[in-house]
Amino acid sequence: MPPPAVRDITKGRRGGYSPIVPTNRKPRVTIDHVARATGVSRQTVSRAINNKTEIDPETRQRILDAARAMGYRPSRFARGLVRQDVITIGLVIADVLNPFFPEVTAGVLQAAERRGWQVVVYNTGSEYRKELEVIDMLFDQVDVGVAFLFHNDAIAKAAGANLPFILLDTGGRAPALPGVRIDFESGTRQGLEYLISRGHRRIAMLDDEMYLSSEAPNTRRELYLKVMDERGITVDAGWIQPAHNSVEGGAAAMERLLAAHRDVTAVFAYNDMIAIGAQLRARKLGLRVPEDCAFLGFDGLSVGELVEPPLTTLHIDKRRLGEVAVEQAALLLGGTDEGEIPEAVIEPQLIVRAST
Amino acid sequence: MPPPAVRDITKGRRGGYSPIVPTNRKPRVTIDHVARATGVSRQTVSRAINNKTEIDPETRQRILDAARAMGYRPSRFARGLVRQDVITIGLVIADVLNPFFPEVTAGVLQAAERRGWQVVVYNTGSEYRKELEVIDMLFDQVDVGVAFLFHNDAIAKAAGANLPFILLDTGGRAPALPGVRIDFESGTRQGLEYLISRGHRRIAMLDDEMYLSSEAPNTRRELYLKVMDERGITVDAGWIQPAHNSVEGGAAAMERLLAAHRDVTAVFAYNDMIAIGAQLRARKLGLRVPEDCAFLGFDGLSVGELVEPPLTTLHIDKRRLGEVAVEQAALLLGGTDEGEIPEAVIEPQLIVRAST
DNA sequence: AACGTCTCCGTTACCGCTCACGTGAGCGAT
DNA sequence: ATCGCTCACGTGAGCGGTAACGGAGACGTT
């Protein structure tokens, strides 16, 4: 196998990227302007601005006043060039609107703030092109990437991009990049065995439809098939319904599922959003939850506590996920080799509520 | 009244801000290193990296290979210094975990992406100190601020900071800064008159407790009092319960409310999170919704559709809010004076669902 | 043969700022 | 008077790139 495709640095500027630069831009007020206006040298202005010593308090005040009046603001580029202490991390998420990601983001922001790091956020919608584009952006704009990447090509590109990179959810792939692994395997097994122990046999899965057109490994589905097989429960195609990753997607998939297998007694959903949509639709169609059909989600979103009945789910500590990823990023920046980064694992935890 | 306090530029470096710079940092590979290694000049390397013309294809490839092998990555600072085309906006939100903000963020990210702008995100929790600190950060790190600011001092500081600044929700304040105004006034009136038209008289309000210890104007509360007064409905203190801005906060406030006024027939909540918590707790305590007590939220979060019964709410187009703010930011950067920025207004829209 | 014209590459000059020094004034000590 | 020290400030270099221009060599033209 050839080594992972290496980012072609030339690609960065090609095509897409061409920021709209406002016109009529006022020319920048520089430190020199302030210096001339106050009759001192650049260095003295710098001392005033940065609150350093070796400057007369009166002079400082004079300079500060002038700077303010002139609308002077130090260039972050010039400053960053000489003081190499501003660290920016690029956080790549799939969908801000899925509550999963804000929780991860909360963890990342918190850990970043503790370190005084900046966080630039990018949203990909898990689109193939967007993921690839974002990696170019990261390459140019940040010191380290922390990303959810769905497509293998994107991961390969990130791996060859010469940029420190941490994967949120390395799940099931060859360890091309360091990152955090969410143990979907143990989670899925835990959840399904719980359902089985409660007497369920006709267990359907509502899968994320994105895997249909992708080579990305789907641990949850694989484990579902495996566990069903182990228990001698046969599942034909109708038992796995692809769903758009949203409440509405879950609802639609549930309808299809019921059309195929009216006798389903339990639904294992790819995640909470899908589970919630499915459960809602099932109830609307007259099924009692959990008596007629039980629902098991994945993620442990807090919204699961608000629906009726509250959703049983495999809880992931998403906030911690974000924090750990930043810690790993810190290791990378600290000079630790990619290979030396210890793999962090997040264990899903079954939270039994009323939907099962 | 004195003019708004002007940001003391010296404050930027004082105290808090001191990013943790990793140790063992590998020294940066610069364009010069690549140039020497390949026996060409910097300029030629630059041509190769940036995919420009006037370079032999073979030379380009040789340089690219070397650059990759050496782990070269152009400095965004050096580049930004000479090419003034990278624009970064600083998005300041109160709480990533409140679904309101991810929706706004989605709008901001989308509008920013269209322009090729970067978005740095900061979370304040609406804490007084954090808000002030964040403004210092913005001053150093971004080209324009787009922010939710709760505290008047923070707004004043932002106004004097010499940094283009857009307020998400300028609501009710002196127009110290341009931004978007969410018309809570008309929204509140709309919602309350709807409740009244449905025969409700004993209408309580679950207010955000943050206003207790703040000078920030509270349009929703003021309008509540005003409308009640107009209708000749008397409200004593017990009818307004402060709640922490969260589901749990809403639940706790609802309990206090019921202790004070068991005969309440409708609850007007500061926002959806509080409304949902209150409704959930009310049902748990045996009240029927809406028969015994109706609930009206504010925000139009999509989670409101998932609870039982679905929440009636005053919907705010949060995504558009974010987009509009970025458009205004673009105007500012384009040279438009603060005063010339047209005020954008977002009108809440009553969405009647089953909780009323 | 002399001249333009490409092609490819190097040189110079910045971009705006900070760091490490250097410098002169003022002042007490010797 | 000389030295040494502190204080307040200036000077030069350089951070890592890119833009603008210049120049050598290869090639075709007249």
UniProtKB/TrEMBL annotation, chains A, B:
Name of the featured protein: LacI family DNA-binding transcriptional regulator
Occurrences of domain HTH lacI-type (ranges): 29-83
Q: Which organism is it from?
A: Sphaerisporangium flaviroseum
The organism's superkingdom is given as Bacteria
Show the InterPro entries listed in the entry.
HTH_LacI, LacI/GalR-like_sensor, Lambda_DNA-bd_dom_sf, Peripla_BP_I
Which Gene Ontology molecular function entries are recorded, alphabetically? DNA binding
Q: Which UniProt keywords apply?
A: DNA-binding, Transcription, Transcription regulation
